[in-house]
Amino acid sequence: MSAIASNPSANTPTLQARSVRKSFVSGRVESTVLHDLTLDVRAGELTLISGPSGCGKSTLLAILSGLQPADTGEVRALGHDLHGLSMRALEAFRLQHTGFVFQGFNLFPALTALEQVELPLSYMGLAKDVVRKRAVESLEEVGLGPRMSMLPIELSGGEKQRVAIARALAKQPELLFADEPTSALDAANGQIVIDILHRIARTHGTTVLCVSHDPRLVHHADRVLAMEDGRILSDHVPPAASAAITEHS
Ligand code: ADP
Ligand code: MG
């Protein structure tokens, strides 16, 4: 029987993991990277997962976003049991409902910024004019309106990451995942990316789950989960977010 209620109410978290375990085998050695990890991500929040290198953050994000399966346990996203979906249904779910921003941007070298953003929208089967409108709006939202026709080689690291964010954002996903989105950037560009992620959660109501060891992100997160050695050690609301809640209540 499922450990997670299958009839989500308004208060049900948007993303849930129950007893998620993952091990990797290297040679004859098997090492457990996630130890029966349980976690609820609340809708519309910017949740930060922090922790030292190698503690399992990227593996956790890949499992929660449906990129990788867990060995055991359950992941439920927007009411869907990800492990219960066929490969095809999982692909469709990821395309329609999730966006992923990678540390290394993952842009296509031969496509302009506009084409990068349009590509997944075309895969979604949207009409050509809708694809163009959404792509342009998303690029404008991240401040890249004037750079739409440029290739990755003509863009700075910060601009490339903003294209990647626009590409995810244009899909209008309920869930946005970001794995170390600022670690390849200098301080100023990292700050711009952080501000954009924060604004996406605020203005679009998108649930943003971000893995990072960038300390500046802590001040912009609604909630911080600290991981160590495949386990969540603490779960807290950072001071800046608590102050904002008090101000508005
Ligand atoms: P983090 O993102 O916190 O740095 P990762 O989730 O990338 O950590 O990795 C956690 C551990 O799992 C590391 O020891 C890493 O070497 C190992 N690992 C990750 N992916 C694989 C893989 N595909 N095969 C073998 N080991 C892996
Ligand atoms: Mg990582």
UniProtKB/TrEMBL annotation:
<dbReference type="InterPro" id="IPR003593">
    <property type="entry name" value="AAA+_ATPase"/>
</dbReference>
<dbReference type="Pfam" id="PF00005">
    <property type="entry name" value="ABC_tran"/>
</dbReference>
<keyword id="KW-0067">ATP-binding</keyword>
<dbReference type="InterPro" id="IPR003439">
    <property type="entry name" value="ABC_transporter-like_ATP-bd"/>
</dbReference>
<keyword id="KW-0547">Nucleotide-binding</keyword>
<dbReference type="InterPro" id="IPR017871">
    <property type="entry name" value="ABC_transporter-like_CS"/>
</dbReference>
<dbReference type="InterPro" id="IPR027417">
    <property type="entry name" value="P-loop_NTPase"/>
</dbReference>
<dbReference type="InterPro" id="IPR017911">
    <property type="entry name" value="MacB-like_ATP-bd"/>
</dbReference>
<feature type="domain" description="ABC transporter">
    <location>
        <begin position="15"/>
        <end position="248"/>
    </location>
</feature>
<protein>
    <submittedName>
        <fullName>ABC transporter ATP-binding protein</fullName>
    </submittedName>
</protein>
<keyword id="KW-0813">Transport</keyword>
<dbReference type="InterPro" id="IPR015854">
    <property type="entry name" value="ABC_transpr_LolD-like"/>
</dbReference>
<dbReference type="GO" id="GO:0005524">
    <property type="term" value="F:ATP binding"/>
</dbReference>
